[in-house]
């Protein structure tokens, strides 16, 4: 599968056309950023690690009956995916308090959240991805009421599958974000699932094993990503 025209280059991934109008190539790069691009770095092996980590997770979700845009690995840093019309919202699930929830609401970090907190955010780098609700989404035409319910349902299904997967590896899935698109009239999981877009803590020590290591200058960022992958069965 040959890469064609570059369609989009984000903070850590590039998206290319292919000869098939229904498929795209996603390239995972070593670029790393935080705080709306104020902190940036190149981390060796990151593109490869996130690409293979994502492929593993997407396969697990597919086997659990959750349809995704992922089709196959093409190389260490590239994957083939379905071309979807992306919905401009992010779905976030929080199983424990961390990050913005702690800063904005004064909740103690690590507090278990039962039931888990669900949040929508509008995808806009210029606006800092503000939090939104169902009413905003419907009023501004970002998704239909039916699509909203489908996104919520799938997001909670993902939580059930991955919380168990990570816990079996001695890890706590603290929180994560998902993005969705429409393919042939169906809402499918898109984008990626990697330690870049979730929080994972060691279940015994509460050591942070995710992108917070980069945000908080804890070091050994990619080594932590690889350790997470090793514990759940990813082959790098």
Automatic annotation (TrEMBL):
Q: Look up keyword Ligase and say if it applies.
A: yes
Q: Which EC class is this protein assigned?
A: ligase
Q: A biological process (GO) annotation for this entry?
A: 'de novo' IMP biosynthetic process
Q: What is its EC number?
A: 6.3.2.6
Involved pathway(s): Purine metabolism; IMP biosynthesis via de novo pathway; 5-amino-1-(5-phospho-D-ribosyl)imidazole-4-carboxamide from 5-amino-1-(5-phospho-D-ribosyl)imidazole-4-carboxylate: step 1/2
Q: Which domain of life is it from?
A: Bacteria
Q: Gene3D superfamilies per the record?
A: ATP-grasp fold, B domain, Phosphorylase Kinase, domain 1
Gene Ontology molecular function terms on file: ATP binding; phosphoribosylaminoimidazolesuccinocarboxamide synthase activity
Protein name per its UniProtKB record: Phosphoribosylaminoimidazole-succinocarboxamide synthase
Q: Which family does it belong to?
A: Belongs to the SAICAR synthetase family.
Can you tell me where the transmembrane regions are?
none
Give start and end of each SAICAR synthetase/ADE2 N-terminal domain.
6-231
A Pfam family of this chain:
SAICAR_synt
Reactions mediated catalytically: 5-amino-1-(5-phospho-D-ribosyl)imidazole-4-carboxylate + L-aspartate + ATP = (2S)-2-[5-amino-1-(5-phospho-beta-D-ribosyl)imidazole-4-carboxamido]succinate + ADP + phosphate + 2 H(+)
Supply the PROSITE patterns for this chain.
Answer: SAICAR_SYNTHETASE_1, SAICAR_SYNTHETASE_2
Which InterPro entries does the entry link to? Answer: SAICAR_synt/ADE2_N (IPR028923), SAICAR_synt_PurC (IPR033934), SAICAR_synth (IPR001636), SAICAR_synthetase (IPR050089), SAICAR_synthetase_CS (IPR018236)
The terms describing its cellular component in GO are:
cytosol
């Amino acid at each position: 599968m040959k890469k064609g025209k570059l369609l989009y280059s984000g903070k850590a991934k590039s998206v290319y056309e292919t000869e098939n109008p229904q498929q795209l190539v996603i390239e995972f790069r070593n670029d790393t950023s935080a705080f709306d691009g104020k902190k940036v770095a190149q981390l060796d092996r990151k593109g490869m690690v996130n690409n293979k980590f994502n492929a593993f997770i997407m396969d697990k979700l597919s086997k659990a009956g959750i349809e995704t845009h992922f089709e196959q690995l093409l190389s260490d840093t590239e994957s083939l995916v379905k071309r979807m019309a992306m919905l401009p919202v992010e779905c976030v699930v929080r199983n424990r308090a961390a990050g913005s929830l702690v800063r904005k609401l004064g909740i103690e970090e690590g507090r278990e959240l039962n039931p888990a907190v669900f949040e929508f955010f509008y995808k806009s780098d210029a606006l800092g991805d503000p939090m939104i609700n169902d009413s905003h989404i419907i009023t501004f035409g970002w998704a239909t009421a039916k699509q909203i319910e489908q996104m919520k349902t799938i997001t909670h299904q993902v939580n059930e599958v991955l919380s168990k997967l990570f816990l079996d590896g001695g890890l706590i899935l603290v929180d994560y974000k998902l993005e969705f698109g429409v393919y042939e009239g169906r809402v499918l999981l898109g984008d990626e699932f990697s330690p870049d877009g979730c929080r994972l803590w060691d279940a015994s020590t509460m050591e942070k094993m995710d992108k917070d290591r980069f945000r908080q200058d804890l070091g050994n960022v990619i080594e932590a990503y690889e350790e997470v992958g090793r514990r759940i069965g990813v082959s790098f």
